[in-house]
Amino acid sequence: MSRAVKGTILVAGQELTISNPDKLLWPEMGITKAVFLQRLAGLAPWLLKHCQDRLLTTIRFPDGVNGKSFYQKNCPTPAPDFVETEPQGGIDYVKLTSLPVLLWLGNLACLEYHASFDRVSDPAHPTEWVLDLDPSLEEEPRIMEAALLAGDLLRSLGIASTAKTSGATGVQIIVPVIRDLTFDELRRIGEFVGTYLSDKHPKLFTVERLKKHRGDLIYVDYLQHYQGKTIIAPYSPRARAAASVSTPLHWDEVRRDAAIADYHLLNIEKRLQREGDLLDRIPAQSLRPILSFIGKR
């Protein structure tokens, strides 16, 4: 049995203990815990921003992506003094507020970061609307085609959006919104869009909830966007062999059939330094006119 290795680093005035820095977390990519923490630090400005004011769920892989995993909602214990929590529903969620907190979680092999759709400060009114395009197949070559069709439909309705890879198999269409609608109202819009897409392209889309009844169709999941549910945070790594990262895309990239695995821990920081956060480029919109239109049908 190999001897456990530990060391300490100083981050933003906080001392962190790092254990087993040479442990391979993504063996296929040669990413050790030390490399992961370096890359996580590079992602921090963007990942922290998108987890602010959200309830955080992480997925931990103590032995790397090929080992067992478990979801972590409650704050791991013992926790350093600099870690704050948000009590909700009997759970003490970690508040992901700083680089030391992020690296502390990273050292615990929290490889994925899932944020609640609802905000702690105003849980009833979302600040974005999300359609999740969820393939029924593990490898879905039509996913970017599906995302482009969904984006084009929204554009025809006067809705600006950004496509974001899940980092796994799917794509999410994200629309920043003014806080003038509830989750239920946005679900009505989602149902309208999902039903239209599945009627217009019946060999590509479905709104069938049960996976066993979907065949090879791509599920337009408008129900996931709801209070108490989560989404993989933008710029979160994924526990996939390619160390892929959930990444917002230019629509030209979607049109060129970008591959989800093209965006990963070893190249995402350069992209962000070059492109910035694509989710910042669209101002918040009101979807109330679309809701009114649907109500008149």
TrEMBL record:
Coiled-coil ranges per UniProt: none
One Pfam family this sequence matches: LigD_Prim-Pol
InterPro entries the record matches: LigD_pol_dom, NHEJ_LigD
Chain ranges of the DNA ligase D polymerase domain: 32-278
The protein's name: DNA polymerase domain-containing protein
